[in-house]
Amino acid sequence: MLPYGRQSVDDGDVAAVSEVLTSDWLTTGPWVRTFESELAELAGTQGAVTVTSGTAALHTAYAAIGIGPGDEVVTTPLTFVATASTATMLGATVVFADVTPDTGNLDPDSVSAVLTDRTRVVSGVDYGGHPIDVAGLRGLVADRDTLLLEDAAHSIGGSLDGTPVGSLADVTTFSFFPTKNLTTAEGGAVVATDPEVLRRAATFRNIGMVKDPDRMQRSDEGAWWYEVHELGVNYRLPDVLAALGSNQLTRLGRFKARRTELHRRYTEGLAGLDELVLPPTRDGADPTWHLYSLRIRDGRRRALFDHLRDHGIGVQVNYIPVYWHPLYAAQGYQRGMCPVAEEYYEQEISLPLFPDLLDSDVDRVIELVRGFLGG
Q: Which residues have a Cβ under 8 Å from the Cβ of 163 and sit 6 or more positions away?
């Protein structure tokens, strides 16, 4: 079965991991600090806080912002559930806004209609790798006590109008799952424009432990002393995985270029079929493509999905609208709330896309799709 996504691991990755395994540090050591510094440079921020997953990154980001009961977080339903559920875990109310029909990203007009005085965060998702509409969303929150968060699980290494993903929003989260644009096996990170958010994120992911004398209530107990002022969790990324991430970063440019080539090959090969909607690139966007989100609008998504799976093509669907899940349905969220996102989901199939995918693999997928449609 040809998977829809797969990691690319080379001898350099193996050597980087082996070096850590024979060192004095497996976690909380120098490789984590190096990886965080490299991520901050890539994102154009003052720092980065690594964590154990993309979900952990979202949880940490919301906690660092101070999200809690009484707050509202506006986000898209066309995402993995963690974009919403980690805010719910902290007691916030999640408010869903619809997406644009071209990119599948948050629609600023829909967001505008649901903003209230309790909206603390607008969380956009770079669906498939295409950056969010930063200008449109920024305009909505500029004069409010509301932060813009970019869930960039799909888009590390991308940019919009020359600004790197990571510097577009107030807070940005990354995921390093094996199918993503670079991997640490499991892992994620938070970057932010406000150093205080980064400090709070670093404390939260380290079980809330405070060791800085300037922040302690008592600092004269001895070198062993630490304090916990707020609840935190153990989301520390081990050095062994950070070393893998650092070596992967050296190839991110090549990963991005190959993903762009493959994306273009799909688009050229599937052009001219009226039943299909192909993913666009808006002016100014330079995506790092994570997904090739094909849409079929004649009602045969399930049939095409099964056809491709039956021929050994491991396609996927991204994503089930978040409020369709029983967790949110039980809270009163109704189907039909975001009709554009629901239509997008009902049409979408993610075709295989990863750096080691062969041109011949892409051509085979194209041939199977065209054969199904009689084209």
A: 44, 134
